[in-house]
Each structure stands twice: as C-alpha cells, then as structure tokens.
Amino acid sequence: MPDDEGHPTVEEIELGRVLSALADPLRRRVVRELAVAPEGTARTCASFSLPVSKATVTHHFRTLREAGLIHQVDRGNSRMAGLRRADIEARFPGLLAILTAE
After folding, report:
1. Which CATH number covers residue 82?
2. Is 4 inside any structural domain?
3. C or N: which end of the chain has fewer Cβ atoms within 10 Å?
4. Is residue 86, in this structure, part of any structural domain at all?
5. Neighbour-count burial of 66, counting CB atoms closer than 10 A to its CB (0-12 exposed, 13-18 middle, 19+ buried)
6. Which domain holds residue 24?
7. Residue 2: inside a domain, yes or no?
8. β-pairing, 70-75 with 78-83?
9. Residue 101 burial (C-beta neighbours within 10 Å; 0-12, 13-18, 19+)
10. First and final CA of the chain: distance in angstroms?
11. Number of domains in the chain
12. Dihedral sign from CA coordinates of 50, 51, 55, 56
C-alpha cells in the first residue's frame, strides 16, 4: 500500500507503471539527470527547468512518484525529488544503466 505521500513500497513497484512513466521524454530526462548525479542527490522540481507549465511539471513528478521511481519530500514551499536508486535496482536490475546509456 502506498504511503500517505503516494510512494509505493518496493514490492508494489510494477514494471508496467515504471515503463509507462518512462515513456515520456521529459520524465526520462528527470530520471536520467538524477541517475547520473551522486547517490543521495535531491533537487527541487523547478531545478530541472522543464519546458512546460507548472501544472504539467506537477503531473510529471506525481507520475514518477506513483510509479516508484522518485521519492519526494516537502521542503518549505517547494518539493525535493530524489531517485529511488536502490529500490529500482532491487526490482529491475540494470534499468538505470540502460537509461543513462541513451
């Protein structure tokens, strides 16, 4: 069962949802940027400078969170997003390496 913030447990991360989330090039870009950053890196959603409206940015990050690819934490009036690297590798070994090889 996802937590109160919509983060699924490791066991609930499903391949179909992950692939659906990664089908969008902007969401792939977010995951790639987090994957090549040092372990434990968290960034604000605005720091990715996605060329879409604020509402669409919110939608993209909610999709990534609900798929289990990122973890989000509120920090004041912004949200920090970090990659769930260990959880993704546990469920789908090699997926992040494929994404960063593009």
Report:
1. 1.10.10.10
2. no
3. N
4. yes
5. middle
6. 10-100
7. no
8. antiparallel
9. exposed
10. 33
11. 1
12. negative
Q: What per-residue confidence (pLDDT) applies to 78?
A: 86
Please report whether residue 1 resides in a domain: no
Average pLDDT of every residue of the chain: 93
pLDDT band for position 53 (cuts 50, 70, 90): very high
pLDDT in tens, 68-83: 999 999 888 889 999 9
DSSP H helix total and E strand total for the chain: 5, 3
CB atoms within 10 A of CB 59: 14
CA 16 – CA 34 distance, rounded (Å): 21
The H or E element containing residue 75 is: strand 70-75
Report how far residue 19's alpha carbon sits from residue 55's, in angstroms, rounded to the nearest whole number. Answer: 22
Burial of 65 (0-12, 13-18, 19+ CB in 10 A): buried
